[in-house]
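Our consortium's second objective concerns turning raw sequence data into structural hypotheses that experimental partners can test. To show how far this objective has progressed, the report includes one record in full. It was chosen at random from the queue rather than selected for favorable results. The single chain below, 388 residues long, was entered without modification.
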Amino acid sequence: ISMLSITLAFLYFAIPANAFSMSMSIGSKNKGRVVFGTAAISQAADPHKLLDAAYHKGVRRFDLARTYGHGKSEKIFGEWMESRGIDRDSVHIITKGGMGDDKYGDPERTMLTRSCLMGEVEASMKSLKVDNVDMYMYHRDDPRIPVENFVVWANEIIQEGKTNAWGVSNWSFERFVEAHDFATSKGLVPPTSNSPQLSLAAPACEVWPTTYTVAGEEHKEQVEWYNKNGVELICWEVLAKGFMAVPDLWCEKTVDRSLFEKDVELGSDEWRLQRIQRAYCNDENYRRRRNAVNVANEYGMSLAQIAALYAMAISPSVSVILGFLEPDQIDDVADLHNYFFDTDCVVGDDEAIENSQKLIDLREWLPDKESTLSQDFAVRLSEQALVS
């Protein structure tokens, strides 16, 4: 695989063939924290075969959207379910809408109306060939529209039996809390999920137009609030578009930072690469990547696996969206929830890294080992064991 093919694969949301290396079997508990991302599924050589592999290996949650592949992701998924006779109750379907024809999160896009939203919902159900989904999400916020509208419209979708729950994608913490508080105060169903960016490579700026992140210490209180209030964070770009999957992708010497502010065509490959590198290619993230590679080598894992473990270790409320183009990639992430990961080993200073517990397989962990651990670490380990 050439560096060009790896770069293009990540530009369009998928994982390249060499991103993972360790074969792992899927466990029986908490499989849902790994969510199959379908943004690039239309580019797979055989999308149905890819979905077959995911399903047979125990993956049951799928993330879709009206905008993915200009509607192709929903259509492919619906055709797959129908052709395979998949029991609707055996899969957890997440889909998103409310952006209309906007593909890039333009803040000046045509404002969403109730009738347009309901039309998108109907189109999604038709493409998916289902009567309802498990989670319907607004793909972007629009601050020009009061949160009350979003809450009421979502509750109408629930009342009509088109979704079991609702959530949002790329909403700021403040807007989410506002919507949550309004819903609970009026006896309406509140949003139960938000889909922000989260990665070991914390973005230095907005990755894509009108998107949000929960990466970094500055968002710790927000993540705690989501967990306390039973809100799932379904996080995207966990591998930072490949920066945290391929150790030598966009090496420091090859990235020309002077091009970060160059005028480029919206939606072009150059535009995508510019936004990705501007967000992720900085000194701190290169340091974190080097640390993660060291841990991966020590435990016989891959950089991508360590990056996914990092995101899942941030909070029990975090699930990770991962896209695949090859069936054998699925084995490498489906079992990650069985591991405890000490984030200090990749984000801490030299002393913290030296003293960190790094990685523990919860399937091999026994309660009597707790006595050998620090009290704080033992508590975190116990909490994760309960979640898993």
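The partners drew two points from this record. The chain has 14 helices and ten strands. The two ends are 36 Å apart (CA to CA). Both points have been shared with the crystallography group to help prioritize constructs.
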